Each structure stands twice: as structure tokens, then as C-alpha cells.
Amino acid sequence: MFQRSSRKGIAALEVFIGGACYGANATMYKLAYADGFSWPQVVGCQMWFAAALFGIALVASFVLGQRWVRVGAGLSFKLMGLGALSCTTAILYCFAMSRLPVAVALTLLFQFTWIGIVIQIVITRRLPKRSEVIAALIILVGTMLASDVYETGISGLDPLGVACAFLAAISCALFVTMSGRVEAPCSSVQRGFIVCLGSSVASLLVCPDFLVSGVVVDGIAPYGLVIGFFGMLCPVLLFGLGSPYLPAGISTILASAELPAGLLVSVLVLGDAIGLMQWVGVAIILAGVAVSQIGVRKPD
Fold it and tell me: Per-residue pLDDT averaged across 40-56, rounded?
């Protein structure tokens, strides 16, 4: 029982770090847009560079003696579908950020904290723990403060952008949930490579000419490396490792580490000024994450 409890604690840390890795996305998206790249190009570079990074890691693991496992067509299709779901989140979120203030897009995306609990109820047919509900409510309050949306509001905003940001929240919650339900008898690297193949193929829906357009040599490569690594490779690996050991609602709550990490990245990279209330919001989010862990590490 102690070992199982310890594994849950490690799994919670893996999902938390995976969510924090997403924090680099918003800043890199803004920098790429400022450099003149379109949101479909940004989506394409994130997915294809992630697949390339996973491919390099897969070859390296083979050279080091880790053998590849035969994965059947059915399971490969499920894993690629998981990648397509991740790409869907990126498509909706990138499009929303091109039409909405970043604070609003972030706030709408972070509705995945309670959406994940709803999905958990539907899948498991059981009510969430009180600590999960309280944690989600605390995080939503913290998100409102940290994203500064309580001052900017959402009135008069592009309705299509608002709808896409909310749909991105649903897609994100589904991705985190399904990451824990689609298991594979292969290494995490091989699993992640198949997932990213699915996301790369899905990205062709919005940027079909990415591979032949010359955008890579035009300067998008640095952005692709960063968001491919932090926005796909690390989260796919870490969610795949940790999510199977946690309830779906807990996983989505832990993934809310994205917003505090995103604010920190924007301060370090862009020099953005973060107000006192935003830091209070960050503290509240982290408190919500701590509340969500009540009972998680108790032996079953």
C-alpha cells in the first residue's frame, strides 16, 4: 500500500510538471506572431518539431539498447487519435489567441479544471471528492486574478474567439483524461512518438503546406523547437507516465500549473510586469493544487 501511495505522489508531480511545461506556449506564441508567422504555421511547427524530437529520442533509445515493441494497428490508431486531440487543443487555442487578449484566452482555457471533473463523473459515474470540487473552485478564483480578466472583462470580444477558447478547454480536459486511459505496452518515448505522429497529421488540416512552404528556413524553427519540446514532448511524456495513476479530475487540476508557469516565463522572457493581485492569484492556484492532493497519497 505504501508503494502504491508513493507512486500516486510521483504521478501527481509528473502531471504537475507536465502542466507547467505548457507555460512556455503563450509567450512563444506571442513572439512568433510578432515575427509575422500565422497561427496555422505556429500549430504546424509545434506538432512537426515535437514529432522530430520524439523521433530523435526514439532512435537514441534504440542505440542505447531499448528495443521497440510491436504496437497493433488498433492501439496505434488510439494513440494517434490522442495526438489529434492534442493538436485540436492547439488549433483552437492558437486561433483564439489571435482574436482575443491573452488574459481572456487563458481564463477561458483554464475552464478545463472543472470540465475535467465533469468528464470524470461521466466516465466513472461517481461524484467527485469534496477536495476535488473545492480545489477546482479555488483554482478558478485564482485564475481570474492571475490572468487579470477581472479588470479587462470579456464584453465586446470576438464571439468566435471566445467559443474557440472554451472549446480548447474541453479538448484539453479530454486530452489529459484520455492520456490516463490509453495505455501501451511500449516505452514512453515510443508511445509519445506515435501520439505526435497523430498530432502532426492533424496539423495538416490547418497548415497543409507547412513541410514545403519554406517557413522552417524563414525563421520559425527556434519557436518550433521550444514549443515542440515544452508544449508537446514533455507534457505527452509526463501525462502518459502520471495520468494512469490519478483520477481524471485530479489530473486536470494538477495541469493548472500552466498558468503560474506561463506568468513566470512572460516575466523572464518578455519582461512583463505582473501586479500584486496576479501574484495573489498564482498563490491561490497553487493552494488549490495543494487542496486537490488531500487524500491522493493515502493508501487505497
Answer: 93
